[in-house]
Amino acid sequence: MQRSGQKDQRYAVGRHGQQFTGVIIFGNMRVRKIVRRLGFAIGSLAIVALIVLFGTGVGTDLRNGWKHGIIQAALDVDKKDRKYVGDPQQNLRTLYQAVLNYQESEGQFPPSDKWMDAIGKYNSANDLSPGEADKKFVDPSLVGQPGDFGYAMNDGAAGKFFDSKHKVKDDFPDPKTILIFTSSDVKRNAHGDPKSLAPNPPRGDNLAITVDGTVVKLSK
Length: 220
Known about the structure:
Layout: H1 2-53, H2 57-67, H3 70-75, H4 88-106, H5 115-119, H6 130-133, E1 151-154, E2 178-182, E3 191-192, H7 194-197, E4 207-210, E5 215-217
Parallel strand pairs: 1-3
Antiparallel strand pairs: 1-2, 2-4, 4-5
């Protein structure tokens, strides 16, 4: 009788153990379903928020940031391992965006005599090591030549305001005014008149970027 009682007791324990395990499994399934539903709901709300946001002025800034690699740079986890491989147009667009970021903070374009120094912290360079980031300020044809940069700022644009959203009157009747250009003066913070500083013979295509962000060739 004692053996029978012990067997019955073990059976009862085993049965309850199976029931308990079943409750755990069922509970985990419910938790997973709830988590999936919450994830779907949060994801849907995020998509709606982005759609609404991208239709505003902030959205325009986000699109510009994505276009010029600023957002990708901020999300990159392997920052210090990246190598910067730029081209003249990409460099000009990157410098242009940094100038716009400076204006967003300071209310006007930087002074031309220290424009590179002024926009340094507004450049999307946090995705690279300092040595690689500096290449964004250098004409690719001059990379490897210490102290040479090759870009200059138009004195005629310094300290002025440009409304890229065309909502208020700005200081540029002609939005195709040259802002940054390929320069024969290759030192840091070079500045002056684009016509007088255009490299001759041309260095590459003698590219420049206007205050409205259009990449053009310097006129001869």
